[in-house]
Amino acid sequence: MFSIDQILIVLFGGGCGAVSRYVLTTWIASKYGAYFPFGTLFVNVAGCFVMGFFMMLTTDRFTVSTNLRLLVTVGFLGGLTTFSSFGYETMQFLREGDLVNAFMNMGANLFIGLLALWLGILTAKLI
């Protein structure tokens, strides 16, 4: 089961991740435009990289507490990554009949995200 301490840890991490997502996606949209959801793509790819990196380090190299794992993975990365936003943005492209951007968004998030996860694992193995 879970404790109130663990819930508070996830709450704190999730809040930090959500604020980070908001700041990053807003900044990226202001810099590169909002015609394609580059901000969502960025946070999803970054979240995949950090998940791969963190999990590789903390399962193969270093022992960390359950609370730290909850803070980073379930909390921060759960608040940072935006699969629901990705789904909504993809559906908007489909509703508008913009199949090119819909499939580009799906492919980019899936393949670049998995590549980032793999790179995170490889980077952690180098440490």
UniProtKB/TrEMBL annotation:
Residues the record lists as binding Na(+): 78, 81
Keyword flag Transmembrane helix: yes
TM ranges: 7-29, 35-56, 68-88, 108-126
Alphabetized UniProt keyword annotations: Cell membrane, Ion channel, Ion transport, Membrane, Metal-binding, Sodium, Transmembrane, Transmembrane helix, Transport
Keyword DNA-binding included in the entry's annotation: no
HAMAP family reported for this sequence: FluC (MF_00454)
Function of the molecule: Fluoride-specific ion channel. Important for reducing fluoride concentration in the cell, thus reducing its toxicity.
Protein name listed in UniProt: Fluoride-specific ion channel FluC
Organism from which the protein derives: Propionispira arboris
Gene assigned in the entry: fluC
